[in-house]
Amino acid sequence: MDSVLAGARVGLTRYDPAGTAAALDRGALVVDTRTETQRAEQGELPGALVIDRTVLEWRLDPTSGSRIPEATGWDVEVVVVCHEGYSSSLAAASLRAVGLHRAGDLAGGFAAWRDAGFPVGRGPADVRR
């Protein structure tokens, strides 16, 4: 699995918490793929959209009939967030393979965000189904 993860991260922008906050400020889509249980236990990342990992590509592909309104083109900046920054790297690589060349992830995941002292919300989350 280590080699798969390393391959997924080649060319991937890995944001630190401050970089993720800056991306939010400039209008990037910050997408939280953590489970409902994880978010209930750990808190919400304010400003993030919550999209289940199983439908992520369909919701962000601008040509998909199942896309969210914010998926306006291939140049949209996307920062994927998971709990610790592993599955988010795989998800961001998948988005890049679909054509979203500005997809990256939060290194260290939500845990890094929280541990760096960035705000943690209690909801409600902006869940996209």
Automatic annotation (TrEMBL):
<protein>
    <submittedName>
        <fullName>Rhodanese-like domain-containing protein</fullName>
    </submittedName>
</protein>
<dbReference type="InterPro" id="IPR001763">
    <property type="entry name" value="Rhodanese-like_dom"/>
</dbReference>
<dbReference type="Pfam" id="PF00581">
    <property type="entry name" value="Rhodanese"/>
</dbReference>
<dbReference type="InterPro" id="IPR036873">
    <property type="entry name" value="Rhodanese-like_dom_sf"/>
</dbReference>
<feature type="domain" description="Rhodanese">
    <location>
        <begin position="24"/>
        <end position="122"/>
    </location>
</feature>
